[in-house]
Structure prediction request, 1539 residues.
Amino acid sequence: MKFILDGLTVYFPYEFIYPEQYRYMLELKRALDAHGHCLLEMPTGTGKTITLLSLITSYQLAHPEVGKLVYCTRTVPEMEKVLAELQELMEYRNKYLGPNPPPIMALGLSSRKNLCIHPQVAEEGSRESVDAGCRRLTASWVREAALKSPDIDTCSFFDAHEKAGQEALLPPGVYTLHDLRVFGRKQGWCPYFLARHMMSFANVVVYNYQYMIDPKVSQMVSRELEKECVVVFDEAHNIDNVCIEALSVSLRQQTLNAARRNITKLEGEVRKAQAANRARLDEEYRRLVGNLVEAQQLRGGEEWLANPALPEDIVRESMPGNIRRAEHFIGFLRRFVAHLYERMRTPAVVAEGPASFLGGVQAAVAVDAKTLRFCYDRLSSLMKTLEITNTDDFGAIQMVADFGTLLGTYSRGFAVIIEPYDERLPHIPDPVLQLSCLDASLAMRPVFSRFQSVVITSGTLSPLNLYPRILDFHPVSIASLNMTLTRDCLCPVVLTRGTDQVSVSTRYEQRLDEGNLRNYGRLVVELATAVPDGLVVFFVSYSYMDYVIARWHEDGILADLMEHKLIFIETQDVMETTLALDNFRRACDAGRGAVFFSVARGKVAEGIDFDRHYGRAVVMIGVPYQYTLSRVLRARLDYLRETFQIKESDYLAFDAIRQAAQCVGRVIRSKADYGLMVFADRRYQRHDKRDKLPKWITSNLKEAHMNLSTDMLMVVTREFMRSMAQPVDRAAAGKGLLSQEAVNAIWEQQRQQAKQAGLGGGSVAMEGMVENRRCRDVLFLLLFVAYWVGMFIVCGIAFQSGDPNRLIYAIDSRGMLCGSVNTYENTTIDLTDKPNLYYLNALDLLKVSNLMYAKTICVSSCPTVQELCSIGQLPCTSNDQYMCPYYRFAEDNLYGKLSSVNSTAAVNYWDQLPTAQLDSCDGSFLQAAQSTAGLDLSALGVNVSMCDVAAGSSIGGKYLQAQSQFPGKGPCYPVWASTVPYFNRCFPKFPENFTSSVYSMMDTTSGVLQSATGTLKNAFSATGPQFSQHVADISKGVLIIVIGGLACGVLLSLFWMLVLRYFAGFMVWATIAVVNAGLVGCTLFAYNTAGMLTQAGQWGAAISAQLPPMSDPTGMTRENWSYIAYALTAVAALVFLLTLVMLSRVKVAIACIKVASQAVSTMPSIMLFPLLPFILEVGLIIYWVAVTAVLYSAGTPTDHWRPATQDLQPLSLKELMLTNSSQPAPPATLKPDTTNMTRTEVMDLCANSPDCYISYDWDNRLMYAFIYHLFGLLWTNQFIVGFCSVVVAGAVANYYWARGDSRNQPTFPVLKAMRNTVIFHLGSIALGAFIIAVIQFIRLVLEYVDKKTCNLQQQNKIAQWLMCIVKCLMWCLEKIVAFINRNAFILVAVKGGNYCSSAARAVQLIVANALRLAAVNVVGDALLFLGKLGVAACCGVVAFAISNLEYYNNQDKYPATYLSSGIMPIAVAVLAGYIVAQIFFSVYEMAIDTVLLSFCEDCESNNGHPKCAPPLLLEALGEKAPVEAGQDAHHPQKPQRHR
Ligand code: SF4
Prediction:
């Protein structure tokens, strides 16, 4: 089939594809697109190989810039299988590609042993013999000699191939090893050298792991491979061990003996050469002296194994002088081998590092590490010089040379271990000296760094996260794919108990237990009775298998077993095992059935399949842990722990479980197959073991099958075998497959989704950013909408109950509304011409607590300076200088007594007072007023004797005029201060001399009064004119604010973001350095001042001399300074430690800031986005205030009496002056008994009392309406904030998940984010906002309770503290929830999930990345705060510069713009700049948070290795930055040879 996968045309040679194959291809393509490595697990039997080949060859076809596919396999049969599948694929593909398909060259490369066609050489037994045989025929000196002497044999195939030269080419096609041999025979060319030659032209090369990993081979074979190659390691579950083996050398005593013989032989050859052809040796010496440093030249033109060290570690220097001469080198080798021999004779195990071992070598052999490094190259050169062709005879000395070279090259990652005997057989001396590589990543590092994409794949790679750690690489794609099955053909079970119900295990204490072994034996026998055909049993080791089988034999278990099946056993001898396997298969084929006993980690476990009837059940007896007492293993475990922080137990369990999985996987090789997998050890029941099994096993492991005894197992087995014996439902099997149409439909769907999402070019939606969204938390959205319906109802109630006029006009102290017609006891009091509220007694305003009780009336206009009754002018005699209560409510029962006053609302009737008839008057008052206050009563026509009624004189209403001189007494009140109207209220403008005048009159007044007077005087008289001046300045300096504040704010904010993008790193590091240095400086300063520095020795005195001299402080001061010094030391140390801990995270923080800058700069429109929430917020506030105001105006008039505890009554100047006392004592109870009074009477009483005021108060209904309305404000406000967060996060996340490539972003990212938010996420926002609003509401309630219980708290300290703690806790809670909310909104924007799951995930990420988040928040906040301050300060500077222009300072020339002071415009400009910066940076802040959380999510989802992070972030982590396909700059011109 031919189908489209993520935009790539894939040729797949079958009609259907498994879903897991499709997913595998997707993951693989993602890695190829990203030019990164990947780690993919997919079980055997799912067509992994053909999937790989199809995808990669199709990718090569679509992307000609991609290099070769280098497919590494473990064995030759696997290689042949890959090539056979490739052949099939190419035949199929060519059908689609027409008559002239693009040529493909694919070949397998193997050793000479597998490719040689020379009749004699090919017959040689071992690989080394064939190599040596070939070398005997093809060495340059042999061929040179053959030219002179025809008797000397050469290889005709080699000669013919060499003669053909560059023309010796294979025609395009796919060549297996067999095909190569056939072609070689046909052409007469050597297939081995032909394959090597054709590698440069091949599109696909299949060879063994060693050709890629082992430096000795890879430097010869794979040196020419280009960087753009895709390297695949198939069945790579043991790749770490392969890497370690490639760099390890083991020397036994036999090896050293053979090496000694080799040295003697070499010595003889040297002597012979010296005698026969000394020129050759001299030539070699000259070559070595002549600084011919290149290893290639040293190795000469002949092919031999290469240097065992990794390419980058090979020294490119001249050969050390002490081994240049052949005889010197031989002497060195002899001493070296002798030393090794000596070291090997140790009686105890020795384990040491290479450096330590090298020290011993240097002392004994007198050569340094550098000389040792040349060991291999020197030997190679000497053997070529001596023209030695039988290299297989010199294998031992080569191993010693390898040992020396590796020892001299590596000081880390290796261990030298000498074991005098095998610990399991301590009585048999078998010394071995091992230079063991401990770090698998050493061999893999060159591969990962050299090739663009490396694919590590196998059926058993779990746990996946360990491979990137032990191999030290960062895959861009990690996936474990399950096998889709149409029937339960996999039946993994865990056997924990035997037939006697006792647990079974191979743990050390139990492994040899009689009962345990018997249980295992019975298990195998029982299984043999129920399982047809082949049964495979794996043991944990050869020794254990031998022991168990011997015991079973003794116990008759084997005999029982033999009754049912034949028994075959794997041995360490390959031939024996092969024979056993053949016979096993034969027994199965014949229907006799057989059991095969094998060993985990053995040859059978790795490479032999027991498919179909050869393996219907497999038993893994025990957990195949490595031999943990092995010195090599212990050294490796130590290294893994120290270097990669991998715990011993983790690694051992991982290694054991992968081996077990490998063993049980032997029985399933296709989906048509079936098999029972028995994990026979109770330890498999534990999570730490089970979780490490591959997903394709665990997903089939049923809960009921995790703890079985043998009896239960047999029931399960019989049931399983019975069900598997049923005919397969072919139709059902087909349902799980994807046809070409189905696959193309998937692509089409993705394309449509991408299109809808605004992704250009038909690319699929980016990973991580969920595109296919659903409406979430709809219930809360409906609730929110319903709430707003309620809000509108509240609005209706407010307008129905309230009177908007009460907002415009004030209510006087009688509860009447100014500017309106009021009714009082059926009397209409028309105040329509009196819109302003006036305070009758100015002295009431001198105390804030009195304001509420101040008596007020409505007046037509506020009295101004013309009507002023100055204190110095008393008594005032003009009617205009007085204001009186409404005539209807006139004091002293005057209503109806002043005949000329008609209107009930009249307030100017002072001059009418004399017409009133009085019954009595207070002569002593008049006396006091005249004598004490110095009032000239005669001006009013009043004298004291007029009060003497008894004498017949009558003062009449004039007494009232005299009494009105004193504010607070009435019945009329002098206008002591001019007033100005603000919002229909007359505010007094106290004159400059007001207080002095008052003081002069009231020398007996209290301090309280004085201070109150002063405060009010300052408030009203001093700031008033300045205020109006400042307002005028602001209106004139609008241009300064616009240019200096707004424009500058925008530009500087943008500039700051640019600075952050490029210099964030420098700024952060500089700040950290300055803080640390500053703390150290301060600490030293403190020590110096305390005199402790000079006592600290020479260094202290030296530092002290550098510090500025201090005056000698007193003893006490010294002590204080010493405490300060200690405290500073602790702080400096703490900060320093914190700096160290946070170093790596600061890098991430800086990268986040930079990425956020990039993201914002790629979508400038996001900067304008805050305008929308700003408009919404303003609209909300206007609406809320309007409704609240109308609501406020609703209610019924209520009397409020002064609390008895409040000791201030309104001030009566008369009383103050005349009684010469500060204030009268308050009565015990101010509120009179109003029980039997009517409402009007109570109102009257209140209106006349100086201790009562009337206001319109809410009833419960209005109160609840307000509370509802208030919560609505909080909720809606948070909703708008949440909306803004989700939109910004959505837009920025697009950038992140597009790997920082703006080309992969939607065309309009902000609009798309807004669309997503509006359609899908308003419900989640409503829920998040609701939670915050509830907390805020509780905080407001607490504040209210706090205010109400203020007095109570003052009496009870515990209550005060409790209140404080609760308020603090609520504050913290709000901050925490707001933080979680913010992050939850980011995840909502990224993942499209509901609020709860997003918040839970956010918390998880926050906890897992606490330090990272802390670093980013601290660093980000600090930088942004600096930015805001910087922007505001610069705006101030610009505004200042503008305000200094002549335009604003020349009053004559520019009177309209002349500023009395530039302060206010500059201040407003600074404020505007700060606000602009705040708006810009709020987006920026959200962008940083989004980048960070996306990064954390990316890391968490991909085992700590982010897949989609933009390059900057990857660089901060030291990871490889993925490059998107199609970036030509990253694709240098390809070498054409491979085509
Ligand atoms: S050159 Fe080729 S054919 Fe000849 S001996 Fe060597 S490997 Fe065999």
Observations:
- The mean pLDDT is 80.
- The radius of gyration is 49 Å.
- DSSP finds 56 helices and 33 strands in the chain.
- Residues 723 and 819 are 96 Å apart (CA to CA).
